[in-house]
Design brief:
about 350 residues; 7 helices; about 25% strand; alpha+beta; 3 domains; 19 strands; 5-stranded parallel sheet; elongated; SH3 type barrels; Rossmann fold
């Protein structure tokens, strides 16, 4: 049998879309151009034969009759064609020794009937149960997803855009989740919304407002958006710096309620102003100190005041920033939150 030193053959068997099936790939595809591989769902109910083989190579019939997984052969290069009654799909399956390691192997147990789960964040849908598989799409927070199976490595097999896909199990929940991020505040929060958008975020904010709006309007609106898994960022104070102690008392009085609901609470320091503002940075620093020292220990403090003092900011009226500054501030929020600080 002729030997090839540069290439090795890999054969991929897609087992049937049955109650329990194995989807195992021994090596990753090693080809110069993107490979198109027929999914099990696309081939269900057909008898498919890999052709284009020589006397040195075997013929593989789908679905396999003995549930075996074909392993690579060391000395043959084959680029066969998968044929069915009404379509022909070319599947290059050559393997180069310099290619990346094997794709994640897993098994799937299929449900008798699809169940509906919800995405708890914006997540990728992949062609297989692992981050090493191709991303075939993306779904946003709170999307109802039909789930048809569960994998041995903690992923869900789902129906996506008339295809079979896979989503990590830790991003799927049984009930509609709370919005990932909820921003509560005044005009600065309103302008942050305009700068960074509303994808997986909600805002309870109004221009020119402060303590009274927070107490009488925002507090009651929070449960409409926030729930288990929500991170809430509060940013009030620049319009009524004299009310620091009231803010402390109001936030602390609701911490038991918010904690039981699964909400993680952050309070962002009032950020600095320019020389043309009606308040001074000295007043802001005093307000921030009162809040930081008085808030419940379960409230995470974001020192956005010091951050903008260090990196700088742009403001035409001394009080409100340009979009770039708001985007930088938002990125800082996300960096602090991601570290669990």
């Amino acid at each position: 049998m002729k030997k090839f030193k540069e290439k090795k053959k890999i054969l991929i068997v897609l087992t049937g879309f049955a109650t329990v099936f194995t989807f195992a790939i021994a090596y990753s595809l090693g080809i110069g151009e993107k490979a198109e591989v027929a999914s099990a769902a696309e081939l269900t109910g057909t008898t498919t034969i890999i052709t284009g083989v020589t006397e040195e190579t075997p013929t593989i019939v789908y679905p396999p009759t003995d549930n075996t997984v074909v392993t690579p052969t060391d000395n043959v290069i084959v680029t066969p064609t998968v044929q069915s009654e009404d379509t022909t799909i070319v599947v290059p399956i050559t393997y180069d020794e310099t290619d990346t390691p094997a794709l994640t192997a897993y098994t799937v147990v299929n449900y008798e009937m699809p169940v509906t789960l919800y995405t708890s964040d914006t997540v990728n849908v992949r062609a297989g149960a692992g981050t090493d598989y191709e991303r075939i799409g993306k779904v946003g927070w709170g999307t109802a997803v039909p789930v048809v199976g569960a994998t041995s490595n903690g992923w869900y097999q789902v129906l996506y855009d008339n295809m079979i896909g896979f989503i990590r199990g830790d991003y799927m929940v049984a009930e509609v989740p709370g919005i990932p991020y909820l921003f509560v505040g005044d005009s600065r929060t309103v302008q942050m919304q305009l700068a960074v958008g509303t994808d997986d975020k909600a805002y309870i904010a109004k221009v020119g407002e402060g303590y009274n709006y927070f107490k009488n309007t925002a507090i009651d609106a929070i449960p409409q958006y926030a729930g288990r898994g929500t991170t809430m960022i509060i940013n009030f104070g620049v319009n009524d710096l004299r009310n620091a102690s009231k803010y402390v008392q109001l936030v602390n009085s609701h911490m038991d309620e918010w904690t039981e609901a699964g909400i993680t609470v952050y309070y962002s320091a009032v950020t600095p102003v320019g020389s043309s503002a009606s308040v001074s940075n000295g007043q802001i620093e005093a307000f921030n100190t009162t809040l930081k020292d008085g808030l419940d220990s379960r409230v995470h403090w974001i020192d956005s005041y010091s951050y903008l003092q260090q990196v700088g900011f742009s403001s035409k009226d001394g009080l409100h920033y340009n979009k770039e500054t708001y985007k930088n501030l938002y990125s800082y929020y996300m960096a602090v939150i991601s570290q669990g600080l």
